């Protein structure tokens, strides 16, 4: 074991893998710049763009008899505009730069990181596990593009027992979301678990499954919310699972990670009380979504529930918001955004065997923006936040006892 790896305050025998990449002062400065740039590009610029659209582009087009009342029409009208081109260029580059800004420090620390991850897998001091399947076939939808411009995507491995992509995804996402500590992560899990406790105060899940868990950052908070729950996270990408396993074992949180395709899982029928996911379904084709939802139906026990955080469906947002979300389809290596969002989640769940009357799609309050509000927003509720700005869109269902 590397001698200079810092030990956790709680004396975990597994060092904190998240701290091993030690950026130089210059690299840190670069990361902070990238965080600010991305935040500006994704939070402030769209509002400026909307003002330009409302005040200039829309009236100009209206004068020519063009209505611009759907996302495609808005996209066509905005594409040649300088305001859009500036926004889009900045946003694309900010996204790419966030991940690039962590790569050098990761490369330097990689041998040490691999050692820590191996140690975690060998010792499992928290009682979790890591089950990998080197023979698992990676679907083309994962391997064709570097999803959301993450260099190397999720699954790539360059050396034995590689964790590089785990580091790039985790540490890059910290820069990306301007949260420099992973302890502030897991916001979606906190939102959903708070809402579940409000909706079903007697619900005591014994086993929870997180689909497309990456490194489990939106799984770990459920273990804190439901003490004693057995936590399982599945993903296709071994480097992300190795990384997540090392984090959980360091934190003293028991999580069972396994490398599986969520379209066909190896757990027995009715094994889970709660199935969750976050930022997952928009990354797979609709055909795969149908298979995953069928797996959720098979794996949920009577009385169980599932909640998936996702991008809001087209039919639930106005034309401008629709246009805003679909930017990623063409520009951010997210080819399934538009097709996923075009689906009616209620119908998708019904087709997978869930009772339509128990299916839901709603916006939940963010924990920081709404510390005292636990219940979901009504779609027509005045002042309702939009997804990603104070609220989180989720869809899901439950099974009768
Ligand atoms: C954007 S990430 C999800 C992030 C994570 N859930 C979170 O909240 O931070 C999408 C993840 O889904 C995984 N994935 C994509 N297709 C999958 C599949 N068919 N089965 C399991 N995992 C899959 C990818 O490897 C990736 O880690």
TrEMBL record:
Top-rank lineage group of the source organism: Bacteria
One MF annotation (Gene Ontology) recorded for this entry: methyltransferase activity
Keyword annotations from UniProtKB, A to Z: Methyltransferase, Transferase
GO biological process: methylation
Organism: Sphingomonas lycopersici
Protein's UniProt name: Class I SAM-dependent methyltransferase
Keyword field contains Methyltransferase: yes
Residue stretches making up the Methyltransferase domain: 208-304
Pfam families: Methyltransf_25 (PF13649)
């Amino acid at each position: 074991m590397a001698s200079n790896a810092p030990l956790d305050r709680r004396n975990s025998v597994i060092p904190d893998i998240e701290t091993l990449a030690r950026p130089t002062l210059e690299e840190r400065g670069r990361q902070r710049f990238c965080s600010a740039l991305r935040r500006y590009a994704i939070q402030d610029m769209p509002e400026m763009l909307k003002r330009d659209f409302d005040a200039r582009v829309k009236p100009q087009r209206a004068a020519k008899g063009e209505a611009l009342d759907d996302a495609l029409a808005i996209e066509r009208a905005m594409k040649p505009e300088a305001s859009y081109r500036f926004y889009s260029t900045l946003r694309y580059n900010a996204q790419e730069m966030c991940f690039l800004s962590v790569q050098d420090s990761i490369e330097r620390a990689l041998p040490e990181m691999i050692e820590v991850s191996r140690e975690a897998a060998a010792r499992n001091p928290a009682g979790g596990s890591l089950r990998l399947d080197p023979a698992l076939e990676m679907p083309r939808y994962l391997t064709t593009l570097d999803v959301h411009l993450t260099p190397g995507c999720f699954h790539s491995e360059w050396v034995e027992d590689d964790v590089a992509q785990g580091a790039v995804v985790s540490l890059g996402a910290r820069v990306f979301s301007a949260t420099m500590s992973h302890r502030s992560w897991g916001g979606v899990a906190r939102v959903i678990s708070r809402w579940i406790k409000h909706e079903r105060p007697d619900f005591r899940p014994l086993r929870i499954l997180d689909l497309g868990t990456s490194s489990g950052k939106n799984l770990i908070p459920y273990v804190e919310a439901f003490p004693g729950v057995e936590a399982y996270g599945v993903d296709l990408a071994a480097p992300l699972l190795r990384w997540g396993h090392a984090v959980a074992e360091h934190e003293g949180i028991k999580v069972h990670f396994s490398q599986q395709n969520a379209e066909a899982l190896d757990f027995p029928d009715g094994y889970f009380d709660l199935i969750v996911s976050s930022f997952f379904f928009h990354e797979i084709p609709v055909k795969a979504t149908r298979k995953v939802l069928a797996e959720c139906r098979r794996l949920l026990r009577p009385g169980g529930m599932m909640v998936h955080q996702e991008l809001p469906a087209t039919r639930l947002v106005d034309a401008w918001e629709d246009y805003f979300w679909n930017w990623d389809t063409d520009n951010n290596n997210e080819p399934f955004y538009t097709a996923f969002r075009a689906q009616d989640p209620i119908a998708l769940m019904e087709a997978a065997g869930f009772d339509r009357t128990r299916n839901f799609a709603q916006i939940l309050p963010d924990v920081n923006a709404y510390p005292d509000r636990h219940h979901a927003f009504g779609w027509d509720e005045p002042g309702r936040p939009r997804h990603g700005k104070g609220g989180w869109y989720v869809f899901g269902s439950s099974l009768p006892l």
